[in-house]
Amino acid sequence: MADDLGHRGTRHAVVIGGSLAGLLAARVLAEHAERVTVVERDRLPEGPDARPGVPQGRHLHVLIAGGQQALDELLPGFTDELRGLGAPRVGMPTDMVQWQSGQWFTRLPASAHFYSGPRPQLEWLVRQRVLADPRVELVDGTETVGLTGTAARVTGVRVRERGAGGREERVLAADLVVDASGRSTKAADWLAAIGAEAPHEETLDTGLAYSSRVYRATDAVPATDALGYYVVPGPQQPYGGVIVPLGDGHHIVTLSGLRGDEPPTDEGGFEEYAKRLPHPVVSEWLAGAEPAGPVHGFRRTANIRRRYDRPGRRPAGFLATGDALCAFNPIYGQGMAVAALGALALRRALSDTRRVPTTRRVQRALLDASAQAWDISAGADKKMPGATGDAARSKPADRVTGWYLARVQERAAGDAVVGVPFRAALTLTAPLTSLFAPAVVRAALFSPVPATPAEPPLRLGD
Questions:
Q1: pLDDT at position 2, please?
Q2: Is the pTM of this model over 0.90?
Q3: What are the residues whose beta carbons fall under 8 Å from the beta carbon of 392, sequence distance 6 or more?
């Protein structure tokens, strides 16, 4: 069979991983394959409950605007359904009290919104929509242990049932295999076992770690007009804290720090750690709130990009997507959006009637869909103290670009001319080049830094 991933050559596709990236890839592949099988190692819950295969699932997740647009294109009406389930919609900067680089943001009219409901709720909704398609089959409680085929072409996957009695392997033959198994993918070993080469991994690790806990706002928490609070860490101030609503009176609180000074996972230590932030606004909120669950820690936050686009002895019929392709420091809130944007890129590449959708061409399209998020995440992280990895090295042009973007960020806190395109770029609805539009350049280079609030810009509620 020729290296053609379009409808002319794909009868059966297998997707490894039933999380967001895998489900959305299956949604797209069902438009081209006769059938799609999603292999998931967890036994998936029937409702919107957390599962162990999403180690970050009990932490803060936000669906930024770029992800909302992509999901609505893939699953029409999705964000309306999400909001109908009670997921809060938070406007930036109106609804958030934000401190960054020594200044409070002016709460100008919102130019970007994110949804902050629980991750299991969003994933469950996607799962319901995708699995309603009779062409998509879910095989859960089953782990992938290898690929079949040769270094020239993958022909399927080897799987086995998890748990007692699950030692016997079986083969699922496939014309296309998509790895959506997450940042812990074992694709390097799978490829080596069939004589192929693993991709080079670019890494950048700040050592960032965070801990999260769900709280219930009580009458002891001062009622204000803000929906959330965000103290952003940076090179000069490494502690972060964020409070966002989950719905039904609950909030998730996440505290972050760097290698060697990680936030603890015990109750007393967690709330004491919040006092390290440069302002007590988060700590004061915690003092009046009621814990609604244990503290959960998360430590694996490195940026990792697997360069399948570079030359190497790799097989046709095998693609990587989601965190298995490009995983980001979760603090930037990009992961779910990039999973959806990757699925859109897959759809466009497979539907391109001008060119044959070869494995390499489609894989490059998937990587391109994550490029802007990588530039944002890696660009910020390489400035953090103690950052390690081959992607932490600065290029000669980084100094000039970094100087300019620092001026943009400084003015974004109080100037809509800069703030609106700045937020559009961060939420993946506009390219980074929009920050170099003439009006933005004039404001960044020649306008004075606008005055911003001296204290948290809060108004007491009713």
A1: 43
A2: yes
A3: 204, 205, 381, 382
